[in-house]
Amino acid sequence: MTTTRPNFGQRLADAVAARGALCVGIDPHPALIQAWGLDESPGSLERFAMTAVEALAGEVAVLKPQSAFFELYGAAGIAVLERVIVEARAAGALVILDAKRGDIGSTMTAYANAYLADTSPLAADALTVSPYLGYGSLAPAIGIAEQTGRGVFVLARTSNPEGQELQKSRDAVSRPVAQSIVDAASDTNAGAEPMGYVGVVAGATMKPGELDLSKLNGPILAPGIGAQGAMVQSLRGVFGPALPNVLPATAREVLGSGPGIDDLRSAARRTRDDLATALAV
Ligand SMILES: O=c1ccn([C@@H]2O[C@H](COP(=O)(O)O)[C@@H](O)[C@H]2O)c(=O)[nH]1
Fold first, then answer.
1. What is the pLDDT of residues 22-57, one digit of tens each?
2. Where is the catalytic site (predicted)?
3. Which of 22, 98, 129, 247 has the most ligand 1 atoms within 8 A of CB, as the residue to mutate?
4. How many CB atoms lie under 10 A from the CB of residue 6?
């Protein structure tokens, strides 16, 4: 199936130009739900998630629901996730579904159809994917994303400390594994304008110079700001010349200001303003 949507790289660039470079995670952590004065039930999950959508979907460029926190509630949680995706997109935010999917060919095709096909009730604008079964195993998702004007974000150098041992280990040509993922994504994105639809995940917690992102020509999703310790002021040093392609992401830093709609919105605006200052050329 083909679509008339522009490619995801263009759509993301437009959204960032209009609303600023910020992705807010919708992560209904049990601890946050409790801090908002709610109990642990599907009704509370819905209240939490839809409050976040109401506060933020008309304000920030990108929202990133974390699938795991919805899956926790079974079918009821998936129903809420479906509503989050539909209503956030209707309010003008791009939605990256953080589900980190990855599998062999036919199963990967099913994941790709579940989250990236026009006909799916759970279709987001982009999906996080894991290349642990090989970058080539992601071909079904990359193909459907291209056809439908959607994107994928391939895990390269994740923000968690446990990722380092594997992602910094060397491949057969002595390249760090994380760099080999970035290079494969760069090949897919070559020639796209303003950038391609295959992004990578590279944590804001990285040290400067860990990855060469200069040829990626695609978006860089950078989680880790706030609760995980990365600071907005460090982004320039960490990402260097790739900074214009960086989409900084944070969840708890903003959601911790809830449950008030105005408080959530103010927290997102504050973070976006800080980022605008830090990213300004
Ligand atoms: O490398 C990665 C990839 C994904 N994540 C996800 O982002 C959010 C981070 O939440 P915070 O509250 O801002 O720490 C969460 O859903 C992670 O699963 C990541 O942190 N690092």
1. 999 999 999 999 999 999 999 999 999 999 999 999
2. 100 (proton donor)
3. 98
4. 12
- 168 counts as catalytic: no
Alpha-carbon distance 2 to 191, whole Å?
A: 20
Give the chain's end-to-end CA distance (angstroms, integer). Answer: 40
Which among 180, 274, 147, 201 is positioned nearest to 25, based on CA atoms?
201
Which of 33, 81, 153, 159 best tests ligand 1's pocket when mutated (most atoms within 8 Å of CB)? 159
- Would you place residue 3 in the very low, low, confident or very high pLDDT band (cuts 50, 70, 90)? low
> What CATH number is given to the structural domain containing 110?
3.20.20.70
Cα 251 to ligand 1 centre (Å):
7
- Quickly state the pLDDT bin for 2 (edges 50, 70, 90): low
- Alpha-carbon gap, residue 260 to 61, rounded angstroms: 20
Residue with CA at minimum distance from ligand 1 atom 18 = 66
The interface pTM score, or ipTM, of the predicted complex is: 0.99
Q: Residue 128 in contact with residue 100, Cβ under 8 Å?
A: yes
CA 14 to ligand 1 center in whole angstroms: 24
Does residue 185 lie in a domain region? Answer: yes
Range of the domain at 224: 8-279
Residue 41 domain-assigned (yes or no) = yes
The average pLDDT across 127-153 equals 98
pTM for the model stands at 0.98
In a domain, 1, yes or no: no
Averaged pLDDT for residues 67-76: 98
The answer to whether the beta carbons of residues 267 and 274 sit under 8 Å apart is: no
Q: Is 175 among the domain residues?
A: yes
Question: Nearest to residue 214, comparing CAs of 188, 184, 182, 237?
Answer: 182
